[in-house]
Amino acid sequence: SSCSIVDEDAFITLEVAKKAKDESGKKAWQDTTVACFCFQQFILRPSIAVPPYETEEGLICQDYYIESTRAAAMVGGGIVLVIFVNWGLIFVNSIFVTKERHTRKTYVAQSLFSKILACQFINTGLTLVLVSWRFPGEGTDWLALVQIGQGSYTEVTADWFLEVGSVIFTTVALSPISTTLPAILRGVILRKFVFPWYTKSRKTQDTLNAVYMYPEWDLAVRLAQMMNVTFVIMTYSAGMPLLYLIGVLYCAGSYWADKYVVLRESSRPPAFSEQIIDSALQLWPVGAFMHLCFATLVFSNQSL
Fold this sequence. Notes:
Blueprint: H1 14-24, H2 32-44, H3 56-98, H4 105-132, H5 141-144, H6 158-173, H7 175-199, H8 205-211, H9 219-236, H10 242-264, H11 275-281, H12 284-299
Helix pairs in contact: 2-3, 3-4, 3-6, 4-6, 4-9, 4-11, 7-10, 9-10, 9-12
């Protein structure tokens, strides 16, 4: 039966929870009956999850609440790590591109776009999946050094969505904040603090013009970020269809945020050719192929 606080037939009593915990042994918090009881108690009294655990209900659910908090902290830490690594990848790839000898700004932007997109997609959409997956057969010792293929999943299950899919989903859901908000905040900081501060020490028109020059809007970075989010959504949306709604909201929010940044918080961008956009469009069949691969894994599992 489902774990509910509305249906009286599904409500777990204290006596039933005690019996289930005694029968489950050391890992009673993994027992579905104990977990359901603790969840019901938390909905009724959220303070029960906060130490000290002195009541009978609290003592039964102590391990459950501690493990749930630890799992939530690991998920949150993983999401924050992915976001910060994505920012670091932009910085590192920007340095690499400056070492290349391109003759046009379009070529520079195209090179930066491809590098950032590849690195961010691996970091956002593939690394956690590869770490959680267990590869069949022998000969994966060299992958053990980076924990690739050493996980506990050999197919896409409900537990996989709770443990791995939730991190991917939350990371994508937070992408409007992590990718568009920094540029807006940068403009506010420049107008409110940086420009007035440096204006005090500038005496000539040329130096004042240099101070009030906004940074360029980076087409390559924003295009790579948008393609990364849409690629992750295309890949995993077969099993998490709510990602489609996240994608619609992200595209709408990015349109207005980028429009504001380009018109209000950036200097006039250079005249790029259509080459960088054409290279992005040519990647869509790759996203469609990854969508088909993950959809095959999801729908081939009849237990879902």
